[in-house]
Amino acid sequence: MTRTFGGLGTLALGLVLLGAAMAVSLGVGAVSVPVPQVLEVVARRFHLGDFDVSLLNDQIVWQLRLPRVLGAASVGAGLALCGAVLQSLTRNDLADPYLLGISGGAAVGAVTVIVLGVPFAGLIGSAAVTAAGFVGALAALLAVLVLAAGRSGALPPTRTILAGVAVGQVCAAYTSFLVIMSGDSQAARRVLSWTLGSVAGLRWESAVFLAVVALVATVGIVALADQLDAFAFGEASARSLGVDVTRLRWLLLVGTALVTACLVAYAGLIGFVGLVVPHMVRLATGPGHRLLLPMCAVVGAITLVLADTVARSVVEGQEVPIGVVTGVVGAPFFAWLLRRGRHHA
Amino acid sequence: MPEQHGVRLEVRDASWRVAGRTIVEDVDLVCEPGTVTGLLGPNGSGKTTLINLVAGLTRPATGSVSVDGRDLHALPHRERARLVGLVEQQASTTLDLTVRQVVELGRIPHRKGRLPALDTAPDEHEVVDHALRLADVEDLADRSWQTLSGGERQRTQLARAVAQRPAVLLLDEPTNHLDLGHQLDFLARVRGLGLTTVAALHDLELAAAYCDRVAVLDAGRVVAVGAVADVLTSELIAEVYGVDATVEPHPVHDRPHVRWNGPRTKVRA
């Protein structure tokens, strides 16, 4: 709804900032690499020039940090985008990407593998956690959809949210039970750290996969921007503007849930990004989805790249879970947004 | 800009049920091009349901709705939205939209491309400006929806519906929350559009003054339909609304004037 040119300018600025944040982030860590050398490493790898880079810097920047930075950007973009879509679709400001029981379901899968140490689908270790988390998220999604969909096949938002809460509670009960009964403090620690999220362990293959997921999600969802705009005055109004509401709901609820399941499987439960970033962006862009959605992806990516940078540098010699960083920054910010909103109302 | 001319609207044997209860039953209604039809009837008589059926929001259990000879419920959603515009009783949003942005929503069914950021139709601005003018909200174009009065909101919604450039305009009790002056102004504007219009109305006076024809619903059935003077009789008002009323020609304009005297004294037990 915003003038196209201004929108494109804002988007370009956001992408430049994202590039800058990634460059800075690549230099930060146990060994710090100056930004110019970071750029040289990346440029050489893309065959953009014959730079003289040290093997060590190449290893650190390209092999160790870029997958995690790319992963953080992709996860942040995906979470913020899904959060924005679900907030619009359900007309609920508190909606976030974990709305449909995704977090609980993924936790059931991941925690089962972590605590019981069982292989999953022939995989062991973190690959098994990823696979089990994904399957768990899908199972929870399925349960939520079965509970929420009426005989007519419609997905009324309120019932969908409540079904998500119900499934989430059952999952939480199961995971708590499993952790307590196992009596294994190591496992409990690993469960806690998975729950708070991390992009530390990402390798190139996973990072590329996450990037593809985020990119496909962004393009697919931005293409539906107009139809989300049509929900401004509610469902009946959207229908009268020619939106096939039931079809769009299924498409977007299932689509965002699949995207979230992919992200969660690799990065765990990173809170607040999907909830807060859309509100933050809406302040700047207004509610029109043509600009809001791509900007959410960009700002979400920047946010998580910065959060991950803090997570690996704030305490020397130790990783702080990224969910702790997003929570510490996100929660006060969200509270501020709420108070600000009160003045409007 | 060429005005969209009204087209013929036909509702044939339309019924709708929910949870085993019939809300609208065997409704036949024909609206000639460019006429304004008032939909009257007490609360719960099925006016809103019928409006939603005609708007294509809900599909009739039996029967059909056709616009210009085309079955509305067989059309793709977008195409239907280009034929029929709807103004709800009281639209609300929590979003911070300007009046222009609200009116631009009406262009959504006309955007064909799938890359929304890149293709705004060249005539979009013109159509929106025109709609803002017709509904007399051009001076409010940059105002926030949240700061508008009830009358301004309703005119903005009318502008949004006009921006859809529909052939049929449906209004669901559009004047319920407006003061008298704004009620008259709003309905005069609607008449001025020249679209085939169906408006659910509570106020019999308003219906008498602004509609060409009225259809009266009672318990989901059309119990009377025709020219205002033929339909709005004290017998019908007593029967349908349970109100004792006198209908006589208005002293200033010659349309029927309804004066109520009190609740109907029960004749039958």
TrEMBL record, chain B:
Keywords: ATP-binding, Nucleotide-binding. One of its GO terms (molecular function) is ATP binding. PROSITE patterns: ABC_TRANSPORTER_2. It comes from the Bacteria. CDD domains: ABC_Iron-Siderophores_B12_Hemin. SMART domains: AAA. This is ABC transporter ATP-binding protein.
